[in-house]
Amino acid sequence: MAAQTWNAGRIDRMDYQQTDREWRETLQFHAPELQPWVDPVFSGKDVSVSVLRLDLMDALLGGNKWFKISGNLNEALRLGTRRILTFGGAFSNHLLAVAEAGRRLGFQTIGLVRGEATSGKNDTLQLAQRAGMKLHFISREEYRQKDQPAFLRAWQEAEGPFLLIPEGGANAAGRKGAGDILQYLSIPYDHLLCACGTGTTLAGLAAKLPEGRRITGICVLKGDGMLDDKIRAWVPQSNWRMEYAYHFGGYARHQPGLLSFMQGLYVETGIPTEPVYSAKLFYAVKDLALRDYFTAGTKLIVLHCGGLQGKTFTDVYNNAKAGGG
Ligand SMILES: Cc1ncc(COP(=O)(O)O)c(C=O)c1O
Q1: Is residue 217 domain-shared with residue 317, that is, in the same domain?
Q2: Prediction pTM value
Q3: How many Å lie between the centroid of ligand 1 and the Cα of residue 312?
């Protein structure tokens, strides 16, 4: 095959070859459940809350990751390549999800990992490697060049033609795929809530939300307003809002209060969370309700976007408690 020249614009012109349903049937996913979250705080404010358990769809591919990846895989098929190159940190849920999707669907996957090879010992990267992902560890300086055409051309020369999926699946194909999550909302709702890293999932949902519905994102990174301009550039709608007060110290950082919240939530509802994304989201939902963020009578849906990567809640909780994040 002639070397394919990487072109950032191409990913925006999509021609889907498989529907979300067809991909899911191939992968034998479970249908996500809507679980009521009953709590005196919510009943006291006359707010009803259901959790869309995307995490239950699949142990490794469940959550929002699959939705962001599926649009990109269609793009790879369209371009006639079965090789995917993507990026992530050493604990990236995205890297593992791409590796696992590649294993199951017959795509060759290459992961460029930020940092030293010693981090290759962690569970996420070991699972990615076991799923067949070829990992390359690159320095932080090199990683910063990840969007530069010259950098990508060099990798293309080394590895052959590939489809590039940006870090976190954050591109137009990822946003389009994320919008497919709405098809699982089979009950009436007014307001959605999700955790945000790149903002791709929120943007994809905001773009497709029916008239009159709203979505609030909980930013897990530190930095007031940091995602607003990006999302504004992606979606013209003004049906969304980002909250910045629930980062608990920044990305992958947490504080003891968050861990006791996770434990309490698990005991009371059976819902497992992790401290990087979902625990911050669930904490924020309760706190916002307490602060009268939602008007009485509002029907909320919280999107559980996974992140547990097939680990048990106890593993995640103990690791977080020991400072592993
Ligand atoms: C569990 C979980 N929740 C939320 C997010 C945030 O998604 P996004 O980067 O699309 O904002 C991620 C990252 O993909 C995640 O792993």
Answers
A1: yes
A2: 0.90
A3: 19
